[in-house]
């Protein structure tokens, strides 16, 4: 346990009861955010069955963004789309009134690859474009587009094709799918492109990387999609060709904008061609799920994520939760599968205490397999440290 400060036993303001807000992200590869919240709540209830607990699963823009919206009262809409490598799949998005939440990972995420087979140069964002098109045709006026966890590095070209653009080679033939194809792009025809001028598109991005170069989409995130060094170089060059054509059409150079490199460069296409604004995914999700309102009644906030380390904190959901809760003054404890944070990093981030499941089960495979019961145990420990009734009460 990393302990930046002492865990004070909390007391409720007079006339009220202590309330706890449980707002974790997923434990990637192990549990969805809602399951993490449920397991923590079970543990707390074993120690303090009397306390009001609010479970509010969150996400960073990547996987889990639609689930967070559904948990907050949006309705689920399912659409048959083209998966990342072309096979059909049923993908959901979330809708409430004139608002939609569309998550790229649902249609083109790494975990939607058939048999998990990576296809770094062929994978496409066409499916997320189909989801967007469905939402636009249903008349939505505001779209939150969650970017992250993608299988592709196509600069959002597939998404743009699904919205009616034509990407042509030097012979006037339509390009195939995937970032590798973009090297052959000779003409971008936007005449049939679905207009989104009347729609506010906000990108919820899990990263603030630019499109190109050593901090760009191919170099930083290509390897996790299966790209070797030569493929990373080829994809970066191909994205450069894509950027040149898009910039020629729009007149604005978006490639260096923070977030342009999100989801294999889909951030770039969203900025340039959908007129999107990019915001940190977690901040948008917190707005969407009503986190700030829920905070008003909370004396303790518990957040969580599968893995935390000092180098990769930026954009992580628990950091956004800590930032928002800090403004309100509620202490935040974080439960992680594994944490490499030093006490100083945890304290600077705003975590009053860090609980790592690896302290109880050091073997990563076993810890992932037993995550639900380890989280329940962590919930009990948090309750004992922070929420136990004072002896004189
Ligand atoms: O999808 C990706 O490329 C990464 O999650 C960064 O957005």
Automatic annotation (TrEMBL):
* Keyword vocabulary terms for this entry: Kinase, Transferase
MF GO annotations: glycerate kinase activity
Organism domain of life: Bacteria
* KW Kinase (keyword) present: yes
Example GO biological process: organic acid phosphorylation
Which InterPro entries does the record match to this protein? Glyc_kinase_flavodox-like_fold, Glycerate_kinase, Glycerate_kinase_RE-like, Glycerate_kinase_sf
Asked whether the keyword Transport is assigned, the reply is no
PANTHER family hit by this protein: GLYCERATE KINASE
Membership in a protein family: Belongs to the glycerate kinase type-1 family.
Spell out the protein name for this chain: Glycerate kinase
């Amino acid at each position: 346990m990393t302990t930046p400060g002492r865990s004070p036993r909390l007391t409720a303001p007079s006339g009220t009861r202590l309330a706890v807000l449980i707002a974790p992200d997923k434990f990637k590869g192990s549990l969805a955010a809602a399951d993490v919240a449920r397991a923590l709540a079970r543990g707390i209830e074993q120690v303090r069955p009397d306390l009001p607990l609010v479970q509010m699963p969150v996400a960073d823009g990547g996987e889990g963004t639609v689930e967070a919206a559904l948990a907050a009262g949006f309705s689920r809409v399912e659409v048959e789309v083209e998966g990342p490598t072309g096979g059909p799949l049923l993908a959901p998005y979330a809708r409430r009134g004139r608002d939609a939440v569309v998550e790229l990972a649902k249609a083109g995420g790494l975990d939607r690859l058939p048999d998990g087979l990576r296809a770094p140069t062929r994978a496409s964002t066409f499916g997320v474009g189909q989801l967007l098109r469905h939402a636009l045709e249903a008349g939505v006026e505001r779209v939150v587009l969650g970017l992250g966890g993608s299988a592709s590095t196509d600069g959002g070209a597939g998404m743009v094709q699904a919205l009616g653009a034509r990407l042509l080679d030097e012979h006037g033939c339509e390009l195939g799918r995937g970032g590798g194809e973009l090297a052959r792009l000779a003409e971008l025809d936007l005449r049939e492109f679905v207009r989104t001028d009347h729609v506010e598109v906000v990108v919820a991005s899990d990263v603030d990387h630019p499109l190109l170069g050593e901090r760009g989409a191919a170099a930083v995130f290509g390897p996790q999609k299966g790209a070797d060094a030569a493929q990373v170089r080829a994809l970066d060059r191909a994205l450069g060709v894509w950027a040149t054509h898009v910039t020629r059409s729009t007149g604005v150079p978006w490639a260096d904008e923070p977030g342009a490199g999100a989801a294999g460069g889909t951030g770039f296409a969203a900025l340039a061609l959908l007129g999107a604004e990019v915001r940190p995914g977690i901040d948008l999700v917190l707005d969407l799920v009503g986190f700030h309102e829920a905070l008003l009644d909370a004396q303790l906030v518990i957040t969580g994520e599968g893995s935390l380390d000092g180098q990769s904190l930026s954009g992580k959901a628990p950091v956004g939760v800590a930032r928002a809760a800090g403004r309100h003054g509620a202490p935040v404890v974080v439960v992680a599968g594994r944490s490499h944070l030093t006490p100083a990093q945890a304290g600077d981030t705003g975590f009053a205490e860090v609980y790592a499941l690896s302290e109880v089960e050091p073997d990563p495979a076993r810890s992932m397999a037993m995550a639900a019961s380890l989280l329940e145990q962590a919930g009990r420990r948090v309750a004992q440290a922070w929420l136990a009734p004072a002896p004189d009460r």
